[in-house]
Amino acid sequence: MPTRINQPETAMSIDSADPASSDGGPVSTIDLTIEGKQHSLPLIEGSEGEKAIDISALRNTTGCISFDPGYQNTGCCKSAITFIDGEKGILRYRGYPIEDLGTKSTFLEVAYLLIHGDLPMQNELKKFTLEIESNSLIHENMLQFFNSIPPNAHPMAVLSSAVNSLSIHYPAFFAGDQDAETFEVMAARLLSTIRTIAAFTYKKSIGHPLVYPQANVSYCANFLNMMFSTPIKQHVVDPDVERALDMVLIIHADHEQNCSTSTVRLVGSSKVNLYSSICAGLCALWGPLHGGANQQVIEMLDQIKKQGLTIKECLALAKDKENPFKLMGFGHRVYKNFDPRAAMIKEMCRKLLKKKEISDPLFDIALELEDAALKDEYFIERKLYPNVDFYSGLIYRAIGIPTNMFTVMFAMGRMPGWIAHWKEMHDTVPFKIGRPRQIYIGEKERKYPPLSKRKQFSIMSIFQSAS
Ligand code: CMC
User: Which atom of ligand 1 is nearest to the CA of 285?
Assistant: First the structure.
């Protein structure tokens, strides 16, 4: 018997629901008819009018589960951190538009906002900055780890391992444990040491001595100094570069329930410590469909240049379903109009290249590629636009950050978001371990054969039995 969803009269009036009830609580009900039996499910609404059918009691009341591969229609939590309207190209952290935060705030202010819920007052920012500063060193025993990594190790492998190993060197079991450091200290350590770990990884890869973090230096200037100073030459931080980097980090700071953030939540829901939860997020971010795309974009642009491919040829490759090639830095699960982060990064990239009088042929190729793709029927039909990764790598290149460290830069930016989501999840009542279900499509129960009676099902045996 067919299953259908009915929306009764009462549910039709949800648009006029009292905004006071738009806090994720039920505003109405939905009737669901399964095999002739009607069930009533709550319809909930968020503060921006987003609606969801609350199916948390679905299996208990109907015996069915929902099925949504890739979680394209599944909300896994209620969250007050970030709002995205993918159709309108809106991104807000705690209600503040990304355009305002990116141009008026600093990365540390935004980190505070995401983690604590509001922009800091002067004294709060001072305290937060001091916490970041006083937790910038890593345990010296961790240097043995840095000494043991081969120079060509991928920096994301080094970063994720080093972040997990923070839980070896610092007491970091679940935040409720008596011996554990406070959440604030763990958060400050992560925000701060990710810079130190990233810079140490780079220095080791080029065989240079490590440069330690400094006091009374801005978040980004400290990182740039650790990356580019040497015993023979002190790096002078260019304020334009410092500002550009700060903005790029802000833009990456959170993006609600993406692959890495939902990984941090899922892993953290087992009540493992914050460092290990973030380590899992780092591994998820590394993939080329997620944060790894920024490295792939530059490698793609570089290949286009080296192989002398025309833009037309490149688009044809991306459209060819027989070819695994994709236009990296294009497309997004949520943004179906434009990615506001991409627009901001493109502008910043243009400004920085001009200011530093850099002529980057890859930037020109990127502009041409974007222009052609946005006019192409394939990309228009599928609503594929440049995403945050399309231009971010070009900024990192202009700053002098090596290509294989681009995803590390994304991770540095995303750190406050991951921490904020981990905290929000732990503060949620009732607390639930994350545990999706499945539709099993394997063998039904069968009789166990002893080893001597098992049949070989190799391709060869099929041919042999046929001949
Ligand atoms: N180049 C060519 N075709 C594409 C691309 C692309 N970059 N992205 C999507 N498509 C096509 C895809 O083949 C499919 O076509 P069809 O309908 O004919 O089968 C259609 O567009 C829908 O794509 P999808 O893969 O089903 O969409 P999704 O929402 O599952 O995936 C995505 C989103 C970001 C993984 C995907 O667009 C992609 O692989 N992009 C390239 C990698 C990339 O830039 N990733 C960074 C994402 S932004 C940073 C972050 O937050 O992670």
Answer: 52
Contacts of 393 (CB under 8 A, 6+ apart): 294, 295, 297, 298, 329, 403, 406
The set of residues, in sequence order, having a beta carbon less than 8 Å from that of 244 and lying 6+ positions away, is: 348, 351, 352, 395, 398, 399
**CATH code of the region 305-399:** 1.10.230.10
Ligand 1 close to Cβ of residue 251 (< 6 A): no
Protein residue with its CA nearest to atom 50 in ligand 1: 290
pLDDT digits 0-9 by tens, 54-86 = 999 999 999 999 999 999 999 999 999 999 999
- Quickly state the pLDDT bin for 457 (edges 50, 70, 90): low
User: 384 CB less than 6 Å from ligand 1?
Assistant: yes
326 lines ligand 1 (CB under 6 A): yes
Residues in the chain: 467
Ligand 1: atom nearest CA of 259 is 52
Instruction: Please give the distance, rounded to the nearest whole angstrom, from the Cα atom of residue 341 to the centre of ligand 1.
Output: 17
Q: Where are the domains of the chain?
A: 4-81, 90-290+402-427, 305-399
Residue 387: CB atoms within 10 A of its CB come to 24
Q: pLDDT category, 462, cuts 50, 70, 90?
A: low
- Residue to mutate, 98, 297, 300, 384, ligand 1, most ligand atoms under 8 Å from C-beta: 384
Answer for the pair 222, 214: CB distance below 8 angstroms, yes or no.
yes
How far apart CA 99 and CA 416 sit, in angstroms, is 18
Q: Considering only CA atoms, give the Rg of the chain.
A: 25
* Percent helix, percent strand, percent coil in the chain, to nearest 5: 55, 10, 40
- How do residues 215-249 score in pLDDT, each as one tens digit? 999 999 999 999 999 999 999 999 999 999 999 99
pLDDT tens sequence across 327-381: 999 999 999 888 999 999 999 999 999 999 999 999 999 999 999 999 999 999 9
Cis amide leading into 97 (omega within 30): no
Report residue 39 as tokens: 């069930």
CATH superfamily, region 90-290+402-427: Citrate Synthase, domain 1 (1.10.580.10)
Residue 61: is it exposed, middle or buried by C-beta count within 10 angstroms (0-12/13-18/19+)?
A: middle
